[in-house]
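[[Encoded backbone]]
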Amino acid sequence: MPELPEVETVRRGLAPTMEGARIVRLELRRNDLRFPFPDDFAARASGRTILSLGRRAKYLLIDLDDGSTIISHLGMSGSFRIEAGPASDVPGDFHHPRSKDEKHDHAIFHLDGPAGPSQVIYNDPRRFGFMDMAERIALDVNPFLLGLGPEPTGNELSAAYLAKRFVGKSQPLKGALLDQKNIAGLGNIYVCEALWRAHLKPTRAAASLVTKTGRPTAQMELLVASIRDVIADAIKAGGSSLRDHIKADGSLGYFQHSFSVYDREGQPCRTPGCGGTVARIVQAGRSTFYCPVCQK
């Protein structure tokens, strides 16, 4: 499933085409994806102007000029394709090719923008993605966005904040970091990478990073800095390219080549002077990669 950096790459790839454009027509080729499309979705979106594209956690937000917002999630196999004239691009960055099979084109935004007419096509072979529509002023109480924690790139995320969330928690550290109520948008890959950077074992208790007085330890401070750094590096690189999610300029991101621990089972740890070997365990049905030597 695309993680936060991949969705941010999609947002940045779509923005030049969609922002400021009018939706001449929203074409829906089926009644549902993972969930049914909202009532009168095509009629409500058609004729509207797109003010901006945003992102909350792993959700793409398309703000319209009538105060409504389209909420989109890519699911397991979703992607957006831009077509203007004979060329097409697939914004994002994944390691395996996104589908361009037209039978999986489920929603088409026919646009008229500053650069002329174009189409933004949502393609999803497995149909685990979805689109919803909500009033912008009510996004915080939308069922998909309700209760999400702070963004890993925002100022709200701090060691003091996480200490309050983790105090008394015997839950494994990795599980606590994957809990979207604690931090929004963090997924399996970047949690593994952040824990490696912070030299923290994924199975240790979350509360072990909090002092008896409820304050964050130095290890918690390092963890928060590591989370910020790994997400920033991934966004800068254009996403992890887990599924060859090609960016709008046609180039591939290469962050997958700089993974330090994820999917490197049996390979030497990249921590200078460590000498350990990357191991893989399963936590809550998800693969966890870490170094048993330098992650304590």
